[in-house]
Amino acid sequence: MRSPESPVLSIEGLIKDVGPLAALDGKMLRVVNGVSLHAERGQVTALLGANGAGKTTTLECAQGLQKRSGGSIRLLGEDPDLAGAGLRSRVGVMLQDGGLPPSARPLPLLRHIAGMYANPLPLGHLVERLGIDSFSRSSVRRLSGGQKQRLALAAALIGNPEVLFLDEPSAGLDPQSRQIVFELIAELRDAGMGIILTTHLMDDAQRLADYVYIIDAGHNVAEGTVAELLQHGEASRDGITERTLSFDAPAGLDLRAALGGLGEGLALAEDRAGSYTVTGALAPEHLARLTAWWAEKGIMPASLRLEARSLEDVFLDISGRDIR
Amino acid sequence: MSTTPTAGLVPAGAAPSAPAPLLRRILLQGKYETLAMIRNGEQLILAVILPLLALFGLTVTPLLDGLGAARVDIAVPGILALCAMSTAFTGQGIATGFDRRYGVLRFLSTTPLGRAGLIAGKILAVLAVLVLQLAVVGAVAAALGWRPAPGGWLPGLTMLVLGAAAFTALGLLVAGTVRPEATLAITNLLWMLLGVLGGIVVPAVRLPAVAGNLAHFLPSGALGEAMREAFLHGTFALPQLFVLLLWTVVPGAAALRWFKWN
């Protein structure tokens, strides 16, 4: 679902060549070959792809950090290659490597960056929300990966941008940082910010993204909401919906005996002792048989989960399971 | 935490994002980089301690005798030139090289500061540190009996700034084209070589013939000579001015063309 409002970022047929490279006998390498995407206010737009797919290059062309070789980019209606301070103040950028000086301390650094803006956010709330006060006395080089990411996010947000670019926001995050960062991203999205992020993790895209572009080998191969992409994947398999039932129960159960003739065509596995998966064209009668058998044997599973194909399956289908 | 989703972060009715005025951005960056340079211990040794040691060395040894002026009067202009090379070439070169490695240049160029503001801030920091060096070296030199020529300050400071511009251009060219470790090695090695053999503190006439002839065309030799002309005789050294301009424009243009931001 794309809103009719003008997008915060609009990329059409982006092309980026790098080189000439000695490894290619002095030829240019086309790292982005026709990426098109649109990002809206109040939405998280994810660029999903493997490492080297061209996500970061696409983002850097949109940020004006790299000059594009072809195609068009409009960021808040302007060409990022010609961006002035006015446009830069409305766009927050969190780079993949952070981009923070190792000898700096968090608070003076944030104060310094805040000084570049006429109307920066109050530092106190930002520092508190991202938990930066707990490590504000350490220099950047002593921070953990998660702490660095939180500081880089604060640096990207301090100017109160309308558009936020996050390159691999969950890279190196410990579970606590991940929780903090993901909650904040959702909150900023709800407040109307247009957020564009890259990730190679399906989980991130599934949790955060309103709209996903799957990028492979320098161009888009699929796009849609997470739900749309999952449906697309289901329909592509001769109309048969493949699902996975996974559950934890006592080890050594004989599932084939439990399902009897109904088990034909299903993949049954005990991946670890007591951790089972049943994969295939599961129907309600399979569930009925299985639960009846549990009741008969007095087995209560510790956990139970039924899911259709994951975004990961869709991604692998689309981008080619065999190539990688 | 907060009563409404964004109460904690974006205050209701917050003014829309806008850049701070250009001059304030450049001054802020200049101040930030100046403090970073002053707080760096190795940088201080290179910028202040080594030039002062060289100054003492040249005033207690007979190396500069027989050149028609007091040892200290010949030594100080060259030491000030050495200060410019320390700060603009080695100091700013190394700092910029590592900023590039850590993505600091890329991040700051996405803020309202931008690439031009970042460069302006770096030049400002070089000038600010140079003023501090001038104050320290000047005070020590005065205590050692330095008496600059009456009309020497205007040509002297002009040449010092031009020399700093040339060495900044060279430092940024190195920092923007090779790895930071290589920048570290190249700028330190050249600082040593040019400091000893480049005609900067030891006048070209006192160098071995090959080095002496070459020194006239080096930024080090041109700046050292121009500083001595200024503070010994109160004159603008036009040939040296031309050499320094060339060393500013050519590396500057090369840096604009080949500087890699990532």
TrEMBL record, chain A:
User: Which controlled-vocabulary keywords does the entry list?
Assistant: Antibiotic resistance, ATP-binding, Nucleotide-binding, Transport
Q: Which SMART domains match?
A: AAA
Q: What is this protein called?
A: ABC-2 type transport system ATP-binding protein
The primary site where this protein sits is membrane
Q: Where is it localised?
A: Cell membrane
In terms of Gene3D superfamilies, this protein maps to: P-loop containing nucleotide triphosphate hydrolases
Pfam families, A to Z: ABC_tran
Q: Name one GO cellular component term.
A: plasma membrane
Q: Mind telling me which InterPro entries this protein's record contains?
A: AAA+_ATPase, ABC_transporter-like_ATP-bd, ABC_transporter-like_CS, ABC_transporter_ATP-binding, P-loop_NTPase
Q: What membrane topology does the UniProt entry give?
A: Peripheral membrane protein
Source species: Arthrobacter cupressi
Query: What terms describe the molecular function in GO for this protein?
Result: ATP binding; ATP hydrolysis activity
Any single GO BP term:
response to antibiotic
UniProtKB/TrEMBL annotation, chain B:
Membrane-topology descriptor: Multi-pass membrane protein
Question: MF terms per GO, please?
Answer: ABC-type transporter activity
Q: Where are the transmembrane segments?
A: none
Q: Does the keyword Membrane apply?
A: yes
The protein's superkingdom reads Bacteria
Location comes to: Membrane
Recorded protein name is ABC-2 type transport system permease protein
Query: Which organism is this protein's natural source?
Result: Arthrobacter cupressi
